Automatic annotation (TrEMBL):
The keyword Transcription applies. Pfam families: cNMP_binding, HTH_Crp_2. Keywords: DNA-binding, Transcription, Transcription regulation. It comes from Zoogloea dura. Coiled coil: none annotated. The keyword Lyase does not apply. Residues 153-219 form the HTH crp-type domain. It comes from the Bacteria. SMART domains: cNMP (SM00100), HTH_CRP (SM00419). This is Crp/Fnr family transcriptional regulator. One of its GO terms (cellular component) is cytosol. GO terms for molecular function: DNA binding; DNA-binding transcription factor activity.
């Protein structure tokens, strides 16, 4: 097998997740035997609303959305998680479950850690506990800012914010997603999203093809986004370790 092919076949390192990658060597070595690499296929539901969560997931690629669904079946995304964080905060926050479901919006991989191991590590009061709490604060900030954004900003601004937050977590300018799914995540009609995507394409900010959106002019997209993108990004930069 050629060397390039061998390199591509290697599994991602746990340290590609920024929380795991920021642990001291001794802490990382202690966790390593309990970390299991798992696939996160598109639309996989990591946990349903109210589920007793048994595993933490540390994404190394892909995006997981936190989604709240109402009694009438309508739903909206409240936050995105990528390789900067983790999924399953109820394990160490003490609530055991959450009203939000978590669903993969961009396929990838994650390292899974069992509930008992995380609780053991959390009780030690070390670096993992500190990083997990900082991430939870950042996630709360994102959720709060999303609520304000949904109430006060235009759909165009919200679509721009969502695209920017997505490509930040994908390390790519391309998002594999349908306009119907963007509408579901933002809690609006697909036709409204289609209109906005068309305007953004005409402006030169993005290019679209079937099931894909590529950001072609990031500065222009940032200009069209609301302040919420910059506020959330600044808070994540302040609280979490850099790449």
């Amino acid at each position: 097998m050629p060397k390039d092919a061998q390199k591509k076949a290697l599994p991602p390192e746990p340290r590609q997740n920024r929380i795991l990658g920021s642990l001291p060597a001794a802490d990382y070595a202690r966790l390593l035997p309990d970390l299991k690499l798992v696939e996160m296929p598109l639309r996989w539901t990591v946990s349903e609303s109210g589920d007793h969560v048994n595993f933490l997931h540390f994404p190394v690629s892909g995006i997981v959305s936190l989604i709240y669904t109402l009694e009438d079946g309508s739903s909206s995304e409240t936050a995105l998680v990528g390789n900067e964080g983790l999924v399953g905060i109820s394990i160490f926050m003490g609530g055991e479950s959450m009203p939000a479901s978590t669903e993969v919006q961009s396929a990838g991989k994650a390292y899974r850690l069992g509930r008992s191991v995380m609780k053991r590590e959390f009780s030690l009061g070390g670096r993992l506990q500190h990083l997990a709490l900082l991430f939870t604060q950042a996630l709360m900030s994102q959720t709060a800012q999303t609520a304000v954004c949904n109430q006060h900003h235009s759909l165009e601004q919200k679509v721009c914010r969502w695209l920017l937050m997505s490509i930040d977590r994908l390390d790519s300018n391309e998002v594999v997603i349908t306009q119907e799914m963007i509408g579901k995540l933002l809690g609006v009609r697909r036709e409204s999203v289609t209109q906005i995507v068309g305007l953004l394409e005409t402006s030169g900010s993005i290019a679209r093809s079937r099931g894909r959106i590529t950001v072609t002019d990031r500065p222009k997209l940032e200009e069209r986004a609301c302040e919420c993108y910059a506020v959330v990004k600044a808070e994540y930069t302040r609280l979490l370790p850099s790449r």
